[in-house]
Design brief:
α12 runs antiparallel to α13. The chain has 345 residues and is an all-alpha fold. It has one domain. The protein starts with a helix and ends in a 7-residue tail after the last helix. 77% of the residues lie in helices and 0% in strands. The longest helix has 38 residues. The chain is built from 14 helices and no strands.
Length: 345
C-alpha cells in the first residue's frame, strides 16, 4: 500500500487514522529515546557536542531506514508477522491501538528516569500482549518471528559486549592519538545511527504495514512501499533531532567513564554487532547492542554498578511489563464492550 492509498483509507476509517497516528507517535518516541544510544559514546568521550551529534544521528537514521529497507526488508517482515490479530478489522485495529499506547507509555516513563529502554522489544511485547487478549490466546503468537527476536536479543548482548572488548584491545594495541580517536568516533556515531535507522525504521514500517493490512482484511502479502518507508524514516529523524540528552548522559557518562579510545572501541564494537545482525535479518535492539559494547569497551575503567543495575533492571522488565500492559489494555477494551460502554465487535 502506498502512502496516498493509506491516507485515503484512513480518511474513511477513523480507527485506522488513530492507529496510524499512534504508529507515528511510536516512531517519534523511538527516535527520541532509542536513537540517542547510537551517539552516547561520542558525546560521552567529548568527540561531539550533544546537539551536533543529535543532528548527525537524525540524518543517518533517515538514510539507514530508506537504504536498508530497499536492500533487505526481512527485519520489517518479522514484526509484520509476529502475531495474529484475527481477520476482523473491527477487532484487530483497536487491539493494535492499545498495544501502541502501551509502548508509548513505557517509553515515556523510561525517558523520564533517563534509562535506555529498547523500543524494539517493547514493540514486540506490546503487540504480543494485545494479541493474547483476543480470542485464540497463545495460539495468536507466531513462534518463527518470536524465535528470531529472542535470538537477536541474546546475540545483541553477547556479541555487543565481546565486540566492544575486542575492539578496545585492538585500539590499545594500535595506540592512535586522542585526536584521531575523536575523528573516528564521529564516523562511528554516524555508522551507528545509520544502522539504528536500518533496524528500527524497518520494525516500525512493519507495524505500519500491519495496520494497513488489518484495515483491508489482511490478505495481501508483505510489500514495503518507498513512500511509507520515507515517512517512517523522516518521523524517526525528527524524534532524534529533538534529542534524548538524559539517556545520552546515563549511558555515555554516568554508567562508564569513556576516554577517546574507549569511546571509539564502543562505536566500532556496537556497529559491528548491528551490521552483522541486520544483514542476517535478525531484529535486534540498538540500545542493547550499543550499551553492551560500551560496557565491554569500558570494563577495565570502572563501571558504575548502580547505573548499570538500573539499566539492566529496565531491560528485564521490558518484555513482561509491556506485554502485561498491552494485554490489560486490550482486555479492558473487550470487557467494556461486553458491558456496552465501548463498541467492540
Amino acid at each position: 500500500m502506498s502512502l496516498s492509498a493509506l491516507v485515503s483509507q484512513a480518511v474513511r476509517d477513523p480507527v485506522l487514522a488513530i492507529t496510524c497516528a499512534l504508529v507515528l507517535a511510536v516512531v517519534l518516541v523511538n527516535g527520541w529515546t532509542d536513537a540517542p544510544n547510537a551517539i552516547a559514546a561520542a558525546v560521552g568521550a567529548g568527540a561531539l557536542s550533544f546537539r551536533r551529534a543529535a543532528l548527525l544521528a537524525a540524518a543517518c537514521n533517515l538514510l539507514g531506514a530508506v537504504v536498508m529497507t530497499a536492500v533487505n526488508a526481512s527485519v520489517a517482515e518479522t514484526l509484520y508477522d509476529i502475531a495474529d490479530f484475527g481477520s476482523s478489522p473491527g477487532a484487530a485495529l483497536p487491539a493494535l491501538c492499545v498495544a501502541l499506547c502501551a509502548i508509548v507509555v513505557w517509553a515515556a516513563a523510561a525517558w523520564r528516569f533517563g534509562v535506555p529502554t529498547s523500543e524494539s522489544h517493547a514493540l514486540a511485547a506490546g503487540l504480543s500482549g494485545a494479541a493474547l487478549a483476543l480470542p485464540g490466546g497463545w495460539a495468536n503468537l507466531r513462534p518463527g518471528p518470536w524465535g528470531r527476536i529472542l535470538l537477536g536479543l541474546a546475540l545483541s548482548l553477547l556479541l555487543g559486549y565481546l565486540a566492544g572488548a575486542a575492539c578496545r584491545r585492538l585500539v590499545e594495541h594500535a595506540r592512535p592519538s586522542a585526536r584521531l580517536c575523536r575523528r573516528g568516533q564521529i564516523a562511528g556515531a554516524a555508522a551507528m545511527a545509520f544502522l539504528h535507522g536500518a533496524q528500527d525504521g524497518q520494525k516500525l514500517l512493519g507495524v505500519f504495514l500491519l495496520a494497513a493490512a488489518m484495515a483491508g482484511g489482511r490478505g495481501a502479502g508483505f510489500s514495503p512501499e518507498p513512500s511509507l518507508t520515507l515517512l517512517c524514516a523522516a518521523v524517526m529523524a525528527l524524534g532524534t533531532a529533538l534529542g534524548g540528552r538524559r539517556i545520552v548522559e546515563a549511558v555515555g557518562r554516568d554508567m562508564v567513564r569513556l576516554g577517546p579510545r574507549e569511546g571509539l572501541s564502543a562505536d566500532l564494537g556496537g556497529g559491528a554487532c548491528l551490521l552483522l545482525c541486520t544483514l542476517a535479518g535478525l531484529p535486534v535492539s540498538t540500545t542493547h547492542a550499543k550499551t553492551a559494547a560500551i560496557l565491554g569497551a569500558g570494563a577495565g575503567g570502572g563501571v558504575n554498578r548502580a547505573v548499570a543495575g538500573r539499566v539492566l533492571l529496565t531491560w528485564l522488565w521490558t518484555f513482561p511489563g509491556c506485554g502485561l500492559l498491552g494485554f490489560l489494555l486490550s482486555a479492558l477494551f473487550r470487557l467494556s464492550a461486553s458491558c456496552g460502554i465501548l463498541l467492540w465487535p
